[in-house]
């Protein structure tokens, strides 16, 4: 019903306008595509409503076609402007490999992005000029100002209010915003100057060309503001930029010195990407604590695909496809099909039989008396008796005073796999350092004729020498850590700190311990420890469990120390004191005192908590593979025709099936979809797609001001330059009636200054950003911006119909 009312209102408005000014006519004219419906005179009200309805539906159908081909065009623009290239550069004498975006974000938004999003308006201006024999169209410059007012007031009003409560968005490149805002206001002042001041009602060639030249000047000044280039260094910087970008586009690996600003920009971009990836992994680990890092990596990729920021072109495409029964394809990164790892171990045929000790080292207490040493066979089962000799050798321990020397021959019977022999340790009451000696195997053999005809060779295996450590039991022990410092991964969970007891293990000994903060803080980086270890008699090793708190940091270097306090013998079970009471020899007291427990050289352990290498590698992988999950382009004609026929939901994020309305829109637009599927796939122009990373308000606000300027300089500049040159070539003037342009421009510029001031004021701490923020200010801002647009429309309408006097 609304289109009927609008059609009737349009007809009534035409009559009213004719009554106001008899020189104006409301006669329809032949269109480029839609023909004129004859007859055009003596029409009744019902005829007007019916014809208006038909024209309305025809224009809406053409509008859908324009939207679909614009979507194809924007897909190509998105692919081009989001390209990245890996280059090798030198930064401070150090070679680094990094991804460089071919297009600067600001330049892309003001050039190709603006060209793509404004293509229908630009083409409409050019087609209108050509269709009317290079005469000014009926729409007039006032409609351009009206479009700018809608963009600045209504679109920003919506953007301010749609941000979720409690969140805000701030413009990152504020200097770029000021530049584009200035140009957007100047554009409409300039429009008024060339039409109403310099040559009233006439557009000269120089005026049209200068209007177009303002477009690259807008891009250049915005780029300078983006890179914060000082005025006196602009020529040199631009030359260097041109050379570096030429090099980047020409080769895969280039050598170029980064300026400080370039290096800082790269470091900031890299750090932001790392923080985003690390934060995402942290959240996923909390949500799925039982999943492995490989599974978390897959989930992180999916999350990045769904929630990654999109470019201005993306949202333009999404809006278009939502009204044509389509959606943006979400092609997530495909994980390679898991292949079961099969380790092939070459089986080496070895018929040898090896004789060796079971252990390379044995540790025993001095009071153990006799202990057993085992010798084993490796290889095929024995079929004949095998003999091997063994013999002890002194180390720091001496045979006869510390142990009883051993030697002999062991005989392995057929089918036997191991043999044993005993060694006796000599105990004394003299305190002494820990000592050791060795036992060596030799002379493996098979006796006599029994070895004849055997295919097996008998050899000594490893270890063929075993070390016997004798711990003195007359001392209560020297307590300490194996190392003075260790590095611990934050993902370790619980790190087991080893406390060793050397030079004796007599009695039950208590060893107090405690942790002390360094850069690591108890409760934040680790769980504070304070307690006492109790070593039983003959016990030489204890564990202190240190719980490390994982922050899932990309880089971490937190330090703490663990201290051991003076060890104390448990009074009730002090063997030294008992021995001293039972032996009243002159040396008894001396032996007892020498055997008291003490701290060793390493009684303080320095622990450095480092980042998890697995976590860091995963973050690096995510940063390096940050690609756009929403592929706005296609890779083949087959895919395009398949997409043209398929019906998809209107929202790319919710995963819901298509609605009935989606099916209706799809049927309505399938002709256009199939027709424009013949356009070459966008991925034939570029092989890699990545979304522009921007979670700020720049794409919401900055692009509005930039588009308003570009629409005048590019859209009007091209069309009017063509018409002015054409008329100048034929000796005529290109006439463009200014209409009520002075009145419209004055109101728009005044309101635009008010709007820009409010946008900047919203950066205060109370609100938090240009978009969103506190609930009440957010909705008040949106209401005020919308009222500015309503005021502009009402005042312009009243001035057009001479209700109020213009100027």
Strand content: 15-25%
As residue ranges, the low-confidence spans are 1-25, 245-258, 327-349, 576-585, 627-637, 650-655, 680-694
Helical residue percent? 40-55%
Got a strand count?
Answer: 27
Main sheet specs: 6 strands, mixed
Specify the oligomeric state.
single chain
Q: Would you state the CATH class of the domain at 478-619? A: Mainly Beta
Kindly identify the CATH topology of the domain at 478-619.
Immunoglobulin-like
> How many H/I helical runs?
20
For the record, what is the CATH homologous superfamily label of the domain at 478-619?
CalX-beta domain
Q: Specify the structural class.
A: alpha+beta
What overall form do the CA principal axes indicate?
A: elongated
Q: Any idea what the CATH architecture of the domain at 478-619 is?
A: Sandwich
Mean pLDDT metric: 73
Using only C-alpha atoms, the radius of gyration works out to 43 Å
Give the end-to-end Cα distance, rounded to a whole number of Å: 38 Å
Outline the secondary-structure elements.
Layout: H1 2-20, H2 45-81, E1 84-91, E2 94-101, H3 105-110, H4 112-117, H5 119-131, H6 141-162, E3 168-169, H7 174-196, E4 202-203, H8 205-227, H9 234-250, H10 260-287, H11 293-307, H12 312-322, E5 329-330, E6 353-357, E7 361-365, E8 370-378, E9 386-394, E10 407-412, E11 418-424, E12 435-445, E13 458-460, E14 465-471, E15 478-480, E16 485-489, E17 494-502, E18 509-517, E19 530-535, E20 541-547, E21 557-564, E22 568-569, H13 575-582, H14 588-594, E23 598-599, E24 604-610, H15 613-624, E25 630-631, H16 637-645, H17 660-676, H18 698-729, E26 734-735, H19 741-761, E27 771-772, H20 775-800
Parallel strand pairs: 6-13, 7-14, 15-23, 16-24
Antiparallel strand pairs: 1-2, 3-27, 4-26, 5-25, 6-8, 8-11, 9-10, 9-12, 12-14, 15-17, 17-20, 18-19, 18-21, 18-22, 21-24
Helix pairs in contact: 1-2, 2-12, 2-17, 5-18, 6-18, 6-19, 6-20, 7-8, 7-18, 7-19, 8-18, 10-11, 10-15, 11-15, 13-14, 16-17, 19-20
